User: Fold these one by one.
Assistant:
Number 1:
Amino acid sequence: MTIQPLDLANLDRQALETALEERGHKRFHARQVFSWLYKRGVTDVSAMTDLSRELRAALAQEFTITTPTVAARETSTDGTEKFLLRLADGRQLESVFIPDTPSMTFCISTQVGCAMACAFCLTGKMGLVRNLTAGEIAGQVRVLAGALDMRDQKFNIVLMGMGEPLHNYDETMRALRMLNDEHGFAMSPRRVTLSTVGLLPALEKLAREPVMPNLAISLHAPTDLLRGELVPLNKKYGVAEIIAACKRFPMTKRSRITFEYVLLAGVNDSLDDARKLAKVLAGVKSKVNLIPLNAAPGIPFERPSDEAIDRFARVLADRGLIVSVRKSRGRDIRAACGQLLVEGQQKSPGQRLAVTLG
Ligand code: SAH
């Protein structure tokens, strides 16, 4: 009987241990393999030289290691770098490196495209092409760490690239376990932030995870009426429900939930909106991150003036909220929030169907 080679890059360490055992090898070699793959970026088992020659030969037969390839790389005037990565099936996605001092951040994707269709987001215009596997999510981190020569450096990860992480829950959580593994990158979950529009059932599930990232909620509006227009999912899970779930979310002493709020001129940036937002967030351990819209062709909104942004922020701060305004990075290379878009992708079967159905 021939067994299909297994993609080692898509296994968490426990799964790799099991796979090794099933193939007649010792479980503990998984640690060595993890360390080669994540810490040293070695993707060829024959180069994993602390494994015996026989074992390496066997592993080369039994496993493959799939890694996204860099199809294009662009650097912004502010140092932000956008990577266009190609996956094994030819699909493409974008990951972004944001070199903020002191912390370096990788912004990575969890899906090709996105099903959430937020009114101001370019990725949302693509629709969902497909979910990424855990191997592809963690693979972005391997590729960026290698390409940027940062394997030995500390960096943060934000799941704020393409896709809705809670809409690809299992693979996202499995990727976080792989990145958290002490024999791999050993990423502390405190260095990882998961950003979501608030898929309620998945959010409740997240609250019970042993490895828990920081949480960011893309709120964008204080009322259901307005939010429903900007974030279609709000029609299913409304503001009050999301806030209630946030209040129940287990928090360590120091942590706060970030609320992202894209500011759209004349839409959600009035002082009344700010006052309502402050009310909604009363009693939540929160911080608000205002994101002035990154405008782009095809996005039917405008960025408010700096004064309008300041006034909005001041209302929140006066009511005791912690507020920051997100510096927009990489706008000149369309690497900024909501600007990740891979053009010319084949349509998914669902999209083709939608087209057929008119
Ligand atoms: N789906 C998740 C992860 C994407 S995070 C989520 O929505 O949270 C990307 C962040 O950038 C979100 O807060 C999103 O609302 C915001 N964003 C999307 N389009 C934007 C745009 N054109 N300008 C500024 N921010 C945008």
Number 2:
Amino acid sequence: MAAVKERVFSGVQPTGNLHLGNYLGAIKRFVDLQAKYDCLYCVVDLHAITVWQEPEELTKNIREVTAAFLACGIDPKKQIVFNQSQVAEHAELAWIFNCVARMGWLNRMTQFKEKAGKDKENASVGLFAYPNLMAADILVYRATHVPVGEDQKQHLELARDIAQKFNNDFAAQIAKLGLQGHFFPLTEPLISGPATRVMSLRDGTKKMSKSDASDYSRINLTDSADDIAQKVRKARTDPEPLPTTEAALETRPEADNLVGIYAALADTTRADVLKEFGGAQFSRFKEALTELSVAKLSPIGSEMKRLAQHPKHIDAILADGSSRARAIAAETMKHVKDIVGFVRA
Ligand code: ATP
Ligand code: MG
């Protein structure tokens, strides 16, 4: 078998309220990686239903995430843009991984603990098994690089553990079939830049998230200029002026967050932002941040709204991407079935 081809895979859940964290931690980075890699960008609808979704909302949200990918600059002709449920191989490989991963591994996942909350008995089995499906999403394409926000680091480590256990458990069969070396790559997470973990605008210790009850906690990609200005103005801060060194941000989570957001939007570093704004009052910095956010986000929001008027166009892109994704995934599954010992025609 030829050396594993370098390939990028990543996904976003269609769970509504796409926000600045999704943009800076994920989608903006997807766009940059197109220059260097073959990429698959997936609307992970099978993940979304691990918590209840109203069917009509889900449909709308699948199209909205797709529109966000396009509006941010992902090229669906050069790259593969698709939704997970149209490629059955994701779920098929996830089942095999359910039998590779160990209960103890999944019991350590913090996302399950956070999302299941106090009532774990009432969480769906899918929410618990979510990381196995995520490993399948990546490995069904034998993707080598996965750009994600910091919150997904633990799941990516699990994907590596699953790949390694599969490669070890089936080493003899993999060799016998002439699929030398490691069948599944040990995927590398790409988590870097100034905004790998964008925090809530209301609480600098909590991740900005789609599911936060307060809309003031996040900037949505479709927010109007007025909404953005209001949210930035009301964002929680401390009473001190901005510091002049990065080290001084360590004990000031809200200041750190806003400076990180500015740096990511301006494609620069926290240090450079502090060179310009160190010593300034928040009022002046917030004005500049509002202006920058509006300049960067409002073209994306308008394009998303325009695309929302063309669902057939979006659905055609997803159908085309899905059929190209399926061709790769089906190849992997043939090998996997031979490795496991299933009989196939
Ligand atoms: P949910 O609450 O439904 O899980 P989410 O906001 O976490 O929603 P996902 O679809 O789970 O969104 O994640 C999509 C991508 O966005 C992932 O790569 C994730 O790491 C990244 N991401 C999510 N929130 C943030 C954040 N606050 N800062 C940086 N990246 C983030
Ligand atoms: Mg999430």
